[in-house]
Specification:
Helices cover 36% and strands 19% of the residues. It is an alpha/beta fold. The chain has a single domain, classed as Rossmann fold. Strands 1-2-4-3-5-6-7-8 form an eight-stranded mixed β-sheet, sandwiched between helices. A hairpin with a 2-residue loop joins strand 1 (3-9) and strand 2. The protein is globular. The two termini are 13 Å apart.
Length: 270
C-alpha cells in the first residue's frame, strides 16, 4: 500500500501518495479524484514507484485559488516535479489527468520523459462532444464511466451504497473540475498547436472502444497533433480501462515504458 506524504509546493501543501519501487512514474488522477490503490497499481508497483499527487481542491489537498485552468494546474505540477527532484519523468494521466499531462508536456517537454494519456480530455473532437458529466448526478456519472460494471476492481471501488464521505469527495472534485474546465468544456483550443512543438517525446494514447465520456475523435485529434503517438484501443472497455482490464492495461503500459528506456513490466494476476 502507498505511503502518504505532505509536500510544500509554492507555499501550498499537496498530499502525495507513493508506492512501489524503481523508476518513478507520475500518476495524475481523473476529474472524480483518486479511486484508490487497485489492481493496476499493484501490477505496476512491482517495477516502478508510483507518485500520485492528490489534486488541490479535491478534499485531501487544499484548494489553490490561483489555479484557474488546467494549464495553471500543469505548471503547478511541473514545479512539484522539480521540487521533488523527479524530472524528467514518465507521466500517466487519466481523463482530465491526461489533459493536465498534455499541458505539462506542451509547457515544458524537457521535464517529461514520456506520457501515457488514458481516455484524455483536453482537445476538441471534430465529431461528437465530451460528455457533460457535470449535468449528471454523480451516481450516473460513475456508472457511465464503466462498460464492464462487474469487473472486480469496479465492483470493489464503486459497488454498494455510496457513503456520505464518498459523496462529499466526489462533489468537491466535480466543483473544482467545473472551476478549471467549464468554458470551453474540458478542452483547450490552443493545446493541439502547442503539442505540435514537443518534438520526439514518446506518447501513448489508450482508450476503451465503449467509452461514453470521451469520444474517439478526441484521440484522433491528439493523434493528428502527435502523429508519432502510439494508439491502443481496448475492445470492450469503457472510460476506465485500467479499472476494467488491469492486466491488459498494464501490459500495454509496460511495453511502452520498456520501449522508452524504462524497466519492462510483466503483468501478473493480483
Amino acid at each position: 500500500m502507498p505511503e502518504e506524504q505532505i509536500f510544500e509546493c509554492g507555499h501550498n501543501e499537496v498530499t502525495v501518495l507513493r508506492g512501489g519501487s524503481g523508476e518513478p512514474v507520475l500518476v495524475l488522477h481523473d476529474e472524480l479524484g483518486w479511486s484508490g490503490w487497485t489492481s493496476w497499481c499493484d501490477l505496476l508497483a512491482g517495477q516502478r514507484e508510483l507518485i500520485v499527487p492528490l489534486q488541490p481542491g479535491f478534499g485531501r489537498s487544499p484548494r489553490v485559488p490561483w489555479i484557474r485552468s488546467y494549464r495553471d494546474l500543469a505548471l503547478f505540477y511541473l514545479r512539484l516535479v522539480r521540487e521533488m527532484g523527479l524530472g524528467p519523468i514518465d507521466i500517466v494521466g487519466f481523463s482530465a489527468g491526461g489533459y493536465t499531462a498534455a499541458e505539462m508536456a506542451a509547457c515544458s517537454p524537457q521535464e517529461v520523459r514520456s506520457m501515457t494519456l488514458v481516455a484524455p480530455m483536453g482537445v476538441k473532437p471534430k465529431e461528437g462532444v465530451i460528455a457533460d458529466f457535470l449535468a449528471m448526478p454523480v451516481g450516473q456519472h460513475l456508472a457511465q464511466t464503466l462498460a464492464i460494471a462487474d469487473a472486480p476492481d469496479a465492483t470493489r471501488i464503486y459497488g454498494g451504497p455510496m457513503t456520505t464521505e464518498q459523496f462529499e469527495l466526489f462533489e468537491e472534485a466535480r466543483a473544482e473540475t467545473a472551476r478549471l474546465g467549464w468554458e470551453p468544456f474540458m478542452f483547450d483550443p490552443a493545446l493541439p498547436h502547442h503539442l505540435e512543438a514537443i518534438g520526439s517525446l514518446p506518447v501513448q494514447l489508450i482508450r476503451g472502444d465503449r467509452d461514453e465520456i470521451v469520444p474517439a475523435q478526441c484521440i484522433e485529434a491528439y493523434r493528428q497533433a502527435l502523429p508519432e503517438a502510439q494508439v491502443e484501443v481496448l475492445e470492450g472497455a469503457g472510460h476506465r480501462p485500467e479499472t476494467e482490464m488491469p492486466d491488459r492495461f498494464v501490459s500495454l503500459l509496460g511495453d511502452f515504458l520498456g520501449e522508452v528506456g524504462a524497466p519492462r513490466l510483466q503483468a501478473q494476476t493480483v
